[in-house]
Amino acid sequence: QVQLVESGGGLVQAGGSLRVSCAASGQTFSIHDMAWFRQAPGKEREKVAAISWSGGTTYYADSVLGRFTMSRDIAKNTVNLQMNSLKPEDTAVYYCAANPNSGYYDYWGQGTQVTVSS
């Protein structure tokens, strides 16, 4: 089992920056990759970024490419999502998720709200 706890988020004006973090605990040795998803009211959940736990290879959705940066700190079992040039359409609940090499994101955090005002 892996437990995930997000922190950060909040309210920011358009064009501003925020960072959300996710601390993993438990069987972290089993993690293959981690990702950030977001879900806005009335919209489907969207995968915005991912990072491989061992090699650090990253993935970004087109909607955030060039604005968001995902990083990991293996020693601290933490991943971060630095969000710059935020837009109102980035407003959503952001969730951290972990894939234990099952092909699925089996573990999820509780989510943290990010609100971008225009």
In short:
The chain is an all-beta fold. It has no helices and 11 strands.
Topology:
Elements (H helix, E strand, L loop, with lengths): L1 E7 L1 E4 L4 E9 L6 E7 L6 E7 L5 E3 L7 E6 L4 E6 L8 E8 L7 E2 L3 E6 L1
Parallel strand pairs: 2-11
Antiparallel strand pairs: 1-3, 3-8, 4-5, 4-9, 5-6, 7-8, 9-10, 9-11
Task: State the main characteristics.
4-stranded antiparallel β-sheet, single chain, mainly beta, 7-stranded mixed β-sheet, 11 strands, 118 residues
Notes on the protein architecture:
- It is globular and about 40 Å long.
- With 118 residues, it is mostly beta strands.
- It has strands at residues 2-8, 10-13, 18-26, 33-39, 46-52, 58-60, 68-73, 78-83, 92-99, 107-108, 112-117.
- It is built from no helices and 11 strands.
- Helices cover 0% and strands 55% of the residues.
- Strands 2, 4, 5, 6, 9, 10 and 11 form a 7-stranded mixed sheet that branches.
What is the string of helix and strand elements?
EEEEEEEEEEE
Distance from N terminus to C terminus (CA atoms, Å) equals 40 Å
- Beta percentage is over 45%
**Oligomeric form of this entry?**
single chain
The gross shape turns out to be: globular
Q: What is the strand tally?
A: 11
Number of helices: 0
Helix content percent band: under 10%
What low-confidence regions span 5 or more consecutive residues with pLDDT below 50? none
Radius of gyration: 13 Å
Q: How confident is the prediction overall: mean pLDDT? A: 95
The helix/strand class is: mainly beta
**Main sheet summary:** 7 strands, mixed
